[in-house]
Write a structure and sequence with these properties.
It contains 15 helices and no strands. With 426 residues, the protein is an all-alpha fold. The protein is elongated, with a radius of gyration of 35 Å.
């Protein structure tokens, strides 16, 4: 057997994309292609940003070696180092806050995202950030003993308060609880950023124009700046290059489930949308909505069966609309059985209605709470409630028809068989 023949036989035994795609619909294939492109884009974006763990680790080693070279065997002037550390740290905070605020304001959000209810962060990142913020706060308070500046003292207490609140966040993260907060509105975020930036910039100017840096050596200034930059690098490293890589791993696992477990197209699309765009209000109450719609569907199906029975009864030879003469024994039996079955159907729909209205009350409370968390969810709330109202209106119309038909049959029975009255009230 030739090599060419062997290669052709091996290729036949290998699974191909055609064999995989043959078990999927065109819509599912499109979802898989979307996930593949998204995974590739995120990988390329991570490479362009350049903040890989190896680069950060190399930067931290370089910073440590420079600090040892500058501080080893020389006289250390801690006041200069503290002032340089504080100036560099505040400058970084101003730039980072301005960038995050600008991104938040310019980002288009037509719907409220509730992914934060099920989000979990990195405890290590929170701990590193708390240490950095605490260092800034205590350094500002120590330097304020010499400067006696309102802005420097206020900034120190503000950063200590932020660090204290961060400790509470760490406890939440370690407990693996969902993060109970949402992002502030863009206007409020802009105002907060403006106030903090004003205090930070004023403090930087105050420190720069004071006598603290007079006579400082380049080694001391560089040491303080490198400590601040090292703290920022540690925050990025602790953040877990993880935020991007974890999202990429989530998309890879989802793609594997779609292909290997052959998920239905609707479920695959729903999970892909949540993975890429986040969780909206409709996702929070998806199970409740399914429960309510199923109850409405069950009730309407029961009414449809009732109308079918009534139609068969009315079209039978033994029964027509009420007349002067009562139907024969067979017609009486059919009418009695129909009324009994309709009564049983009504009792069943009452039980379903109790569960329906109990769940509907719970859904409305949850929607009101969601709107309090995110005002932009108001439109989603009205849309969901309108869907429920529309479906319920159809069931209510069927109920009115059911009542009318039952009362007509019961009145006919009481007219023909007054000695055996029926007075069931729906």
């Amino acid at each position: 057997m030739s090599d060419t023949t062997q290669n052709e036989g091996a290729k036949k035994n290998e699974p191909t994309n055609d064999l995989i795609s043959s078990s999927m619909t065109s819509e599912t294939e499109a979802i898989v292609r979307l996930l593949t492109e998204e995974i590739r884009d995120r990988h390329e974006k991570a490479k362009l940003e350049g903040w890989t763990p190896w680069v950060l680790a190399a930067s931290l080693v370089s910073i440590a070696s420079i600090l040892l070279e500058d501080l080893w065997g020389t006289t250390v002037h801690w006041e200069f180092i503290k002032a340089s550390f504080l100036i560099t740290s505040l400058a970084l905070f101003v730039v980072l806050d301005f960038r995050s605020t600008l991104n938040s304001i310019t980002e288009r959000k037509n719907r409220a995202n509730f992914s934060f209810l099920h989000a979990s962060g990195s405890p290590m990142q929170a701990i590193v950030r708390i240490c950095w913020i605490s260092g800034i706060g205590f350094t500002a308070l120590e330097l304020n003993c010499d400067l006696h500046s309102f802005f420097v003292g206020a900034l120190g207490w503000i950063f200590i308060a932020i660090a204290f609140s961060g400790i509470l966040s760490v406890l939440v993260l370690i407990s693996r609880l969902p993060l109970p907060f949402t992002a502030p509105q863009p206007l409020a975020l802009a105002i907060m950023t403006f106030i903090m930036s004003t205090i930070c910039i004023t403090t930087i100017v105050k420190l720069w124009s004071s006598s603290l840096l007079v006579g400082s050596k380049m080694e001391d200034v560089r040491a303080g700046s490198l400590v601040a930059l090292g703290a920022y690098a540690l925050c990025i490293l602790a953040r877990g290059h993880n935020s991007q890589s974890s999202k990429k791993d989530e998309l890879i696992e989802l793609r594997q489930e779609i292909v290997l477990e052959n998920l239905p197209c609707g479920e695959a699309l729903h999970r892909t949308r949540i993975a890429l765009r986040g969780m909206f209000l409709s996702d929070l109450v998806a199970q409740d909505m399914a429960f309510l719609m199923k109850n409405i569907s069950d009730v309407r199906m029961t009414y449809a069966q009732s109308f079918s029975m009534i139609a068969v009864l009315r079209n039978s030879a033994e029964f027509n609309t009420p007349n002067k003469e009562a139907p024969a024994a067979l017609g009486k039996l059919a009418l009695a059985n129909t009324l009994d079955v309709l009564k049983m159907y009504n009792e069943n729909t009452k039980e379903i209605s109790k569960l329906y209205f109990k769940r509907l009350k719970s859904v409305k409370l949850r929607l009101d709470l969601a709107v309090r968390l995110a005002k932009s969810a108001e439109a989603d709330k009205h849309k969901l409630l309108s869907e429920i109202t529309h479906a319920q209106a159809l069931a209510d119309a069927d109920f009115e028809k059911f009542v009318s038909e039952y009362e007509a049959l019961q009145n006919a029975w009481n007219t023909w068989y007054s000695s055996e009255p029926r007075n069931y009230v729906l």
